[in-house]
Specification:
With 341 residues, the protein is of the alpha/beta class. The chain contains 15 helices and 7 strands. Among the domains are: 132 residues, 3-Layer(aba) Sandwich (Rossmann fold); 99 residues, no CATH class.
């Protein structure tokens, strides 16, 4: 993943999204521009998880060594970005007019929204977004995933046959880390640097077609028994890689539900609604399923489902006491109920 120069050079910036590997790369790229390695021990401050705004403000106000720049990183800033209306006036003024010779990077592990009343739709962050000071490294929608596969394949020197990039994105979901690892496997298989559909089928057959895709389809149809069977097969076939890929599939579906909540609030329909959900005109048949789930869950239910996806993400990465199987079982049940009643 290449980090945009506009973001890396931004003195005050915001990084968000579920791709942990992408976040680490973006943080390192930003630090490489703003942190002097010789003075890092004295000028760089990393705030505690869940810290309040006053702690961030105090860190920025601390004196740096003569000639050095005060750099502050907030690694888990979700709590600071939940309610834009509650942003203190002093913080709004600070973010709009930074203290001289200071740098600030806010990091959110979850994707943020630019909808009405959301953090990226409110000043000053809406201005940051248009200025290229906000970078998202979360799950990609289908169109962005295809473009991402093509860029990464080009960087690896792979030549993809027609339709192969869309085939990979459809099977493996929109998680950038999973797409990168898939291409790395294909890189090892492609002696002549050419990747065709048969090679993709060979590399992703059990995990992509029989397990992850079958699991996602069963969840969308509310077929709990089939979804649980697909989950079992996926975990048995690829216990290390399957959980994250399944989670990527789930996040894509729930993200579309969240977009539908925002689109309905804005009164969008037809082509505008398709675009808001990241769907092409050929995928318009999917709208009915999302609409039924939206009517059943309401806005509060969709947000609860999103929180469950985020909690499952934490569980799978070992940041909670429970293991990976139980959270995925619970998520499977919730998805089947959401889409199938």
């Amino acid at each position: 993943m290449s980090v945009p120069a506009a973001f890396a050079k931004s003195e005050y910036a915001l990084l968000h999204g579920e791709d942990g590997e992408g976040r680490l790369r973006a943080i390192e790229a930003w630090k490489a521009v703003h942190v002097d390695p010789e003075w890092a021990d004295f000028s760089l401050s990393v705030c505690a998880e869940g810290c309040p705004w006053p702690e961030v403000q105090n860190a920025l106000s601390e004196c740096a060594p003569l000639g050095a720049t005060r750099v502050v990183i907030v690694p888990q800033a979700e709590n600071l970005l939940e309610r834009p209306k509650e942003l203190p006036a002093s913080i709004k003024a600070l973010l709009a007019n930074p203290i001289s010779d200071t740098r600030l990077l806010l990091v959110s592990r979850s994707a943020l929204s630019a909808g009405p009343g959301r953090i990226l739709g409110s000043k000053p962050f809406s201005d940051w977004n248009t200025q290229g000071r906000v970078l998202k490294v979360g799950a990609l929608d289908e169109r962005d995933a295809v473009a991402y596969v093509e860029r990464e394949a080009s960087a690896l020197g792979l030549r993809l046959d027609s339709g192969v990039s869309a085939r990979i994105a459809s099977r493996m979901g929109g998680h950038p880390g999973i797409l990168r690892r898939t291409l790395e496997v294909l890189d090892l298989l492609a002696d002549d640097r050419r990747v065709g559909a048969a090679m993709v089928d060979q590399a992703t057959f059990r995990l992509g077609e029989q397990s992850a895709f079958a699991w996602s389809q069963a969840c969308q149809k509310g077929q709990l028994a089939k979804a649980l069977e697909a989950l079992r097969v996926a975990l048995e076939d690829e216990p290390s890689g399957a959980p994250l890929m399944l989670l990527g599939q789930a996040r894509r579906e729930v993200d579309r539900l969240c977009r539908m909540v925002e689109a309905r609030a804005q009164g969008l329909n037809g082509g505008e609604l398709l675009a808001a959900l990241g769907l092409s005109p050929k995928q318009s048949f999917l709208l009915d399923g999302y609409a039924r789930a939206m009517d059943r869950l309401k806005s509060e239910g969709v947000h609860r489902l999103l929180r469950q996806v985020n909690q499952t993400d934490l569980d799978l990465k070992g940041m909670a006491l429970s293991g990976g199987r139980t959270p995925l079982l619970l998520l499977t049940t919730s998805l089947c109920r959401a889409f199938g009643g």
